[in-house]
Specification:
Elements: E1 20-21, H1 24-34, E2 41-45, H2 51-56, E3 63-68, H3 71-78, E4 85-89, E5 104-109, H4 115-125, E6 129-137, H5 138-145, H6 155-161, E7 164-172, E8 177-178, E9 185-192, H7 202-213, H8 220-227, H9 234-238, H10 253-264
Parallel strand pairs: 2-3, 2-5, 3-4, 5-6
Antiparallel strand pairs: 1-8, 6-9, 7-9
The structure holds S-adenosylmethionine (SAM).
């Protein structure tokens, strides 16, 4: 396979999750899923030696922002200036996402060790995410799109689906990368959902789902009684048509959102009879 990178790759750093794409068809499919249009603002996370960047550079975007933690690759990209191209050398986990103004499309073959916390941040904090296409470990892709009742449904599914509609693009085996990872990868696409379907209080939702999915096989009433003795009442569940004996993994995304409001927004008064 010919070298599809913008410049020669250095020795891959394991600590930065460096597995570089070597199959141009895969890279083209990622770019197609991003649906780039004239005048777009596009960010690429972790461009590395630039397999994806090479296909993005000739497109008629307004801004192309490359965010790369490896100083070596950030410097290589910065040495190839274009009008509207910005290179940020830094950690995506510390990026000030709120600063992105207007609609942004974001793409990246994400480092596997930081993909979940990164996507957790992006869906909540990017003010106007127009579209995102991420390559992640297949198992993480399964969790992103999982529906209630399935083995893969968890806090990441509920959180991400509260802000975007994630859908599986395609699955890729290890041979598409150099060095090859030990697991299969999947490309997922995030499409925005209407504002009214998003959580009114994301902090409460985040707190609730972290509590619930630590004990996914237990009954909700037991989990909440123990974790939130001051705020939990049976009424909070029954008011939402939730059976107190249900397990967290069976609750729909909207039910988690409403339960978080009910438990933490002050609607659930202390005078209500407690379960204990
Ligand atoms: N885009 C290239 C490709 O597809 O061949 C490289 C992908 S490689 C899986 C992940 C890239 O993310 C590497 O270039 C790595 O240096 C960079 N990276 C790792 N951790 C990062 C972080 N926390 N913030 C920004 N970039 C990071």
């Amino acid at each position: 396979m010919s070298d599809i990178n913008l410049f020669t790759a250095a020795r891959a750093k394991k600590s930065l999750g460096q597995h570089f794409l070597r199959d141009e068809r895969v890279v083209q499919r990622i770019v197609d899923l991003l649906r780039p249009e004239e005048g777009d603002q596009i960010m690429e996370i972790g461009p590395g030696p630039g397999a994806l960047t090479a296909l993005l550079r000739p497109l008629p975007w307004k801004t192309l922002l490359l965010l790369e933690k490896d100083d070596h690759y950030a410097a290589e990209h910065a040495a190839r200036p274009l009008p509207g191209l910005e290179v940020v050398a830094g950690d995506a986990l510390a990026y000030p996402w709120e600063r992105l103004e207007g609609p942004w499309k974001i793409a990246g073959n994400l480092p596997y060790n930081v993909a979940s916390p990164l996507m957790w941040d992006i869906v909540r904090r990017v003010p106007h995410l127009a579209r995102a296409v991420f390559m992640v470990q297949k198992e993480v892709g399964d969790r992103l799109v999982a529906r209630p009742g399935s083995r893969d449904y968890g806090a990441l599914s509920v959180w991400v689906q509260s802000f975007v509609e994630p859908r599986k693009g395609f699955v890729i085996g290890p041979s598409a990368f150099s060095p090859p990872p030990k697991v299969d990868s999947a490309v997922v696409v995030f499409e925005p959902i209407p504002e009214r379907r998003r959580p009114s209080d994301p902090d409460s939702l985040s707190r609730l789902i972290k509590i619930c999915f630590q004990q996914r096989r237990k009954q909700l009433q037991g989990i909440l009684r123990r974790a939130l003795p001051q705020t939990f009442t049976l009424d909070a569940l029954t008011a939402l048509g939730i059976d107190p004996a249900q397990r967290p993994e069976t609750l729909a995304v909207e039910q988690f959102q409403k339960l978080a409001e009910e438990l933490f927004s002050g609607k659930n008064h202390a005078e209500k009879p407690r379960l204990s």
